[in-house]
Specification:
Length: 660
């Protein structure tokens, strides 16, 4: 999601446009000097020892081979031309096919999509709206048969429902949603689990699979970990504080080494409206989250979304949710040990000693970078033994220091300022109010942390910082050095001794994004990067099985960058480091989500989120975009079909690994 729905129902300006982090951490005025001069050192012996310690000789060899290419890019494909139009585009020599669209049947009994007669019941079995995270979980280790797991982050009612919008003075005016429409929205959230297979070279959904499943905004979930059963999580519908109804705003996510699916609850505050009673105990908690957001009309029909009626309901959202896709009857679990904030995602990796490390950004201007390290260790031979690993461990928040080092500071009750004196009676309070705890530790205020992707091949971790137009000259810091950072940047972390579980490390900025031909932008793409190859607003990232980094974006448009969002291949090794090339671009209005490759590198799944949202600034449309008059009718291009978010799959013509 690009910070907020483009066309919210109400009350957006007050909450979301003000940064909610009012703590005073590290808003030092002087900056960066000499950051880049350390690059040579960081790419030298330290990087190599990190690789060796983490991944062993085979990966080391492949990484060193890449280094040895001496300036050659690790990628080979003809670059797509940057631009914006109604369709999507992939590099020449590749096929892109639509695999699942909003409304396509997911469950075995779901009806075909009928946009003029949509119901909540139908939607609860069909592919949800605004696909974001995409994961591929192989069945029997296959690269051609597995489970596709997809998050459905949010809904765009103006593009979903006929007859809802009027144009008044050239602007969209959205009417009131009916109860059924609200319930369709709730059912269009959550996630999809779909068995897929490649038959005669084409991927398709397996009908009548026992795995095919929808999770929605009403699916029962279990709350586990330190906050489970806490008074602050009890509501009139659940006096135990252990069973939440549904999961919401599932942005990016992850797949664990034991094959469970992680859904990250991001802008959960947006679904809540109303006002807390004066001096309510949760006031400070809510204020720090910019809550309630008032983005939707759900409170008109469901009291739980009205904070004046159910003040604790919102404390049951904002978590990482773990789902076992292999068991269709499994209850999704909200893992509170991993903290409560606007989780972008939860990508994981196994540390040398077997502990599992999960990285998660808190996507808000001036918020933080986190990681969670499990107390237990991963057992590759006993899947069942891993199923509750995420309930015990240590949550850390990052502080980036000026000398290029960094520290992961533990959010542990009783340590430092995290005591009853500061309002934290137990670890439950710390995980419920993670942001406030992190403020007290002096974490570094970042430029909207999105996906954080560990790379097993080179031992590094890549942090997407999408943008922060609110950062001023006065509050730049060494890890977020650009005031008015509208194009974002990417930080590369090397954990100490190549150990992802380490509590310290080093870091540098891999890329400052934006158009490198405009000096004032200060972008740092190499000169080998073509006019198509640069991008702004990094959001999601993927690392393929060769350890190559791919970055997808959210917010490129005709006005800011003269290009649609897309997927860029970014070199990280050798002299080509910092070179970027455009592989795929989305249709007008969309953002690019969910890049994930199969292990053999031959199939690439991509999520096209909110296509057709906006259109005023694209001269191919030049006016508001809504159900009856969308900027594009991708992917069907039929007059009787609305524009539909969809997951697509890219393969190489004639077969083989992508981009080699
Ligand atoms: Fe849902 Fe941070 O993007
Ligand atoms: Ca985003
Ligand atoms: Ca995102
Ligand atoms: Ca990712």
């Amino acid at each position: 999601m690009n910070e907020k729905p483009t066309f919210p129902t109400q009350g957006l300006e007050s909450a979301e446009f003000d940064p909610t982090n009012h703590s005073t951490n590290r808003t030092m005025g002087e900056v960066i000097a000499a950051r880049f001069s350390r690059r040579g050192f960081l790419q030298g012996s330290l990087a190599v020892s990190a690789i060796a310690a983490t991944v062993g000789p085979a990966a080391l060899l492949s990484a060193l081979r890449a280094e040895a290419q001496e300036g050659g890019s690790a990628f080979s494909f003809p670059e797509v031309t940057a631009g914006v139009d109604a369709d999507h585009h992939v590099a020449e020599g590749y096929d892109v096919k639509v695999l699942m669209r909003w409304g396509d049947p997911v469950t075995n009994d779901a009806p075909e999509f009928d946009p003029n007669n949509q119901t909540a019941e139908a939607q609860a079995g069909q592919f949800g709206y605004n696909n974001d995270y995409v994961g591929y979980i192989p069945l029997d280790g296959s690269d051609e048969h597995g489970l596709l797991v997809v998050n459905h982050e949010y809904t765009n009612p103006h593009l979903m429902f006929p007859g809802l919008v009027q144009i008044v003075d050239g602007e969209l005016e959205q009417g009131d949603l009916s109860e059924e429409q609200v319930n369709i929205e709730i059912a269009a959230h959550g996630g999809s689990i779909i068995e897929i297979e490649k038959v005669d070279g084409e991927w398709r959904r397996v009908a009548d699979s026992k795995y095919n499943r929808r999770i929605t905004g009403t699916t029962e979930t279990l709350i586990t970990g330190p906050a489970a059963g806490h008074d602050r999580l009890k509501t009139s519908a659940d006096e135990t504080g252990t069973k939440a109804q549904g999961t919401l705003n599932n942005c990016a996510g992850g797949v664990t080494p034991w094959g469970t699916y992680l859904m990250a609850e991001e802008n959960f505050h947006g679904y809540f409206s109303g006002e807390l009673p004066a001096d309510h105990a949760e006031s400070e908690n809510y204020a720090r989250l910019g809550a309630p957001g008032g983005w939707y009309q759900w409170h008109n029909f469901h009291d739980r979304f009205d904070v004046s009626k159910e003040p604790n309901e919102m404390n049951r959202f904002g978590y990482i949710v773990e789902v076992d896709p292999m068991d269709p009857t499994s209850v999704p679990k909200k893992r509170t040990a991993m903290g409560r904030f606007k989780h972008e995602g939860a990508e994981s990796i196994v540390a040398p000693n077997g502990q599992v490390v999960l990285y998660s950004g808190d996507d808000e201007r001036f918020d933080y970078v986190y990681k969670f390290v499990t107390a237990g260790t991963y057992d590759a031979d006993d899947r069942a033994a891993n199923m509750d690993l995420l309930d015990e461990g240590t949550l850390y928040v990052a502080r980036f220091d000026e000398d290029g080092s960094m520290e992961w500071m533990p959010l542990v009750h009783g340590e430092g300022p995290l005591t009853a004196e500061n309002g934290f009676a137990s670890q439950a309070d710390i995980v419920i109010e993670t942001r406030r705890a992190a403020d007290l530790l002096g974490a570094t205020k970042m430029d909207r942390p999105e996906d954080i992707q560990p790379n097993a091949t080179n031992g590094k971790v890549y942090v997407m910082l999408t943008n922060n137009s609110r950062r001023t000259e006065e509050d730049v810091n060494v890890a977020n050095p650009r005031p008015d950072n509208v194009f974002g940047h990417i930080i590369e972390i090397a954990e100490a001794d190549g150990d992802f579980a380490a509590t310290s490390g080093t870091w540098e900025i891999l890329l400052k994004c934006g158009d490198p031909s405009i000096a004032e932008v200060g972008a740092t793409f190499t000169t080998d990067t073509t006019e198509n190859g640069w991008f702004g607003m990094p959001d999601n990232a993927a690392v393929d099985s060769d350890g190559r980094l791919w970055v997808s974006t959210d917010g490129n448009n005709p006005t800011d960058t003269g290009r649609a969002d897309g997927l860029w291949a970014v070199d990280t090794e050798g002299a080509a480091r910092g070179t970027s090339r455009l592989f795929y671009r989305v249709p007008v209005g969309a953002e690019m989500c969910g890049p994930v490759f199969t292990e053999n590198g031959e199939s690439l799944f991509l999520a096209i989120q909110h296509p057709g949202d906006g259109g005023e600034d694209w001269d191919g449309h030049g006016r508001p975009s809504y159900y009856e008059d969308p900027a594009t009718r991708w992917p069907d291009f039929q007059d009787d079909m609305p524009v539909r978010p969809a997951v697509v799959v890219v393969t190489k013509q004639g077969g083989g690994k992508i981009a080699v």
